[in-house]
């Protein structure tokens, strides 16, 4: 009898897939004791990151939306089977009543992380459904982008830029109009989680970081109709430059009327007689007819799932997230490679000692340096 029962027991052992479902902790434990995970990664390995510039091949043109809004960056980021799509939109703002120009004021960057219905049920850890995690990450990123440590906001306040005097050059109608209307840009950063297999925090932050790295601001032109007293906002692009090279009179007049404004936006002196050729030469090798968004630093995060007191898994999948709770290391990385880090505990992960945190920071810094220095 004993022998027969043993035979039945061996025949009825669950398959790996079933074992994975009914005892995920035991299933993972077999792998973790060997220092690997079921997907083949080591415990401190981040999944392969892919970044795709969705505006590449647009011949340097901006995607203009309603109300003169313009898409200045669009990137898709993948980490394993987690796919994030980040779009940065520049929104023009005007004021009809005179107001004092000031460097203080409303936030210039808004961030939204959108979780479609098919994704929401999977944002889950050992503490339960993480329904508000996307709002926490949105708020964190918005605070970082509006702090002045990431984006110099002066580059978005065109009215202030145009008020700066140029030696020997009188003001012009275009600059006066833009200053009077207090023209400025606001940036809307929208991240959509298209597919989810874990690690919402890191992939959202990475998607915004790479989108900002690839963003360009348009060169604003104002088309004046003095007889009608009307003004139309336009953007400098390669088509206009081609028409100017073909001696199109209307385009040449448009560029001449905007010469001072263009000079100040680009930070270069333009002489009327050679302006067109100078602009053609300047934009010959650039990816876009515009000015690159100036970034002082970028935020990065690396998230660790706490499996037990001594075992932490970098970049957890959605399956791994159910095995514990997570803690992230937040790093603000500057252009010179220096950075400041801090613990970011959005998932209420408890019981982590300072020594463990120091170890996690070292791992996170190594990963961030690798990702930040990689050309995608």
UniProtKB/TrEMBL annotation:
It comes from the Eukaryota. Gene3D superfamilies: GHMP Kinase, N-terminal domain. Keywords: Cytoplasm, Exosome, Nucleus, RNA-binding, rRNA processing. The keyword Lipid biosynthesis does not apply. One of its GO terms (cellular component) is nucleolus. One of its GO terms (biological process) is rRNA catabolic process. It is found in: Cytoplasm; Nucleus, Nucleolus. Residues 74-217, 298-353 form the Exoribonuclease phosphorolytic domain. Pfam families: RNase_PH, RNase_PH_C. InterPro entries: ExoRNase_PH_dom1, ExoRNase_PH_dom2, ExoRNase_PH_dom2_sf, Exosome_comp_Rrp42_subfam, PNPase/RNase_PH_dom_sf, Ribosomal_Su5_D2-typ_SF. Its main location: cytoplasm. GO terms for molecular function: mRNA 3'-UTR AU-rich region binding. Belongs to the RNase PH family. This is Ribosomal RNA-processing protein 43. The lineage of its organism: Eukaryota, Sar, Alveolata, Apicomplexa, Aconoidasida.
């Amino acid at each position: 009898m004993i022998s027969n029962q043993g035979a039945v027991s061996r025949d009825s052992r669950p398959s790996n897939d079933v074992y994975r479902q009914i005892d995920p902790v035991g299933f993972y434990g077999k792998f973790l004791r060997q220092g690997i995970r079921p997907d083949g990664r080591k415990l401190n390995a981040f999944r392969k990151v892919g970044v795709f510039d969705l505006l590449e091949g647009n011949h340097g043109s901006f995607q203009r939306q309603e109300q003169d809004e313009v898409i200045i960056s669009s990137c898709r980021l993948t980490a394993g089977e987690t796919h994030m799509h980040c779009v940065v939109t520049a929104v023009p703002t005007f004021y009809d009543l005179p107001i004092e120009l000031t460097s203080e004021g409303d936030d210039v960057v808004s961030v939204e992380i959108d979780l479609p219905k098919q994704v929401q049920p999977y944002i889950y850890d050992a503490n339960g459904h993480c329904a508000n995690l996307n709002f926490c990450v949105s708020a964190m990123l918005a605070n970082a982008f509006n702090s002045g440590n990431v984006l110099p906001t002066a580059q978005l306040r065109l009215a202030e830029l145009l008020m700066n005097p140029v030696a020997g050059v009188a003001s012009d109608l275009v600059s006066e109009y833009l200053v009077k209307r207090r023209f400025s840009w606001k940036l809307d950063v929208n991240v959509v989680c298209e597919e989810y297999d874990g690690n919402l925090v890191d992939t959202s932050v990475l998607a915004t970081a790479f989108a900002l790295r690839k963003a360009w601001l348009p060169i604003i032109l104002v088309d004046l109709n003095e007889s009608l007293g009307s003004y139309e906002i336009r953007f400098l692009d390669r088509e206009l430059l081609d028409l100017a090279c073909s001696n199109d009179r209307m385009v040449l007049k448009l560029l001449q009327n905007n010469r001072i404004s263009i000079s100040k936006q680009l930070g270069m002196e333009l002489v009327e007689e050679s302006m067109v050729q100078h602009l053609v030469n300047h934009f010959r090798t650039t990816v876009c007819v515009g000015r690159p968004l100036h970034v002082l630093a970028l935020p990065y995060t690396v998230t660790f799932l706490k499996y037990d007191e001594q075992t932490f898994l970098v970049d957890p999948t959605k399956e791994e997230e159910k095995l514990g709770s997570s803690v992230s290391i937040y790093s603000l990385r500057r252009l010179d490679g220096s950075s400041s880090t801090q613990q970011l505990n959005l998932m209420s992960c408890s019981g982590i000692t300072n020594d463990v945190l120091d170890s996690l920071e070292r791992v996170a810094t190594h990963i961030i340096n690798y990702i930040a220095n990689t050309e995608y």
